[in-house]
Design brief:
Elements: E1 2-6, H1 11-23, E2 28-32, E3 35-38, H2 44-55, E4 60-62, H3 65-82, H4 92-100, H5 104-115, H6 119-137, H7 142-148, H8 154-165, H9 169-179
Antiparallel strand pairs: 1-3, 1-4, 2-3
């Protein structure tokens, strides 16, 4: 049986969901972002208890088809941005259509109606958060980050970053470093 979950966006979410499933003694085949596959049908009572546990951490079971499709779209977007260096450099619209077996136009219109934002705006927001994360970790240069996130250039990345955050990536990095206090200075 497949069960869909709203707001699962990272590996930590998977751990939380696995723990909740174990507590309720629900056997699973797999737990992916936004989706659980159980070995057998789950009773409505167990679903209710699972939903209560998940809501405590900002997650929620999805029952309606509309919500399920939105979460599938989000999952593809999150994977595209956060695992972008693992995927070939193809247009997102092609990837999304292929993954969900619908035309991009249908998916984009559906997403916009339900979420009150476009797929493009959502991906830009995800990319900006990913860029911030990579800058804070400090392991990659801006050129590396631009390449990983499929920007045409560092200039394109910087322009988009500044448009959204009102800071240049360099200024963001300086702010991060100024906020940190070394252990010796505590």
């Amino acid at each position: 049986m497949k069960i869909y979950i709203k707001n699962m966006a990272c590996e930590s979410c998977k751990v939380v969901v696995k723990d909740a499933l174990e507590e309720l003694d629900i056997s699973t085949v797999k737990v992916e972002l936004g989706e659980i596959e159980t070995t057998e049908d789950v009773s409505n009572d167990d679903k209710k208890h699972l939903n209560i546990k998940l809501k405590k951490v900002g997650l929620e079971l999805l029952e309606k088809k509309q919500g399920v499709l939105i979460e599938k779209i989000r999952k593809v977007m999150v994977d595209y941005v956060y695992k972008s260096d693992e995927k070939p450099n193809i247009k997102f619209s092609v990837l999304l259509s292929k993954e969900l077996n619908h035309s991009y136009t249908y998916l984009a219109n559906f997403f916009s109606e339900v979420e009150a934002t476009t797929i493009e705006q959502f991906i830009i927001a995800l990319k900006i958060e990913r860029i911030k994360e990579l800058i804070i970790f400090g392991e990659d240069t801006l050129s590396d980050i631009a390449y990983k996130l499929h920007y045409s250039s560092v200039s394109h990345l910087s322009t988009q970053f500044k448009k959204v955050t009102e800071l240049t990536p360099s200024h963001f990095k300086e702010l991060k470093e100024k906020r940190r206090i070394t252990i010796q200075n505590i």
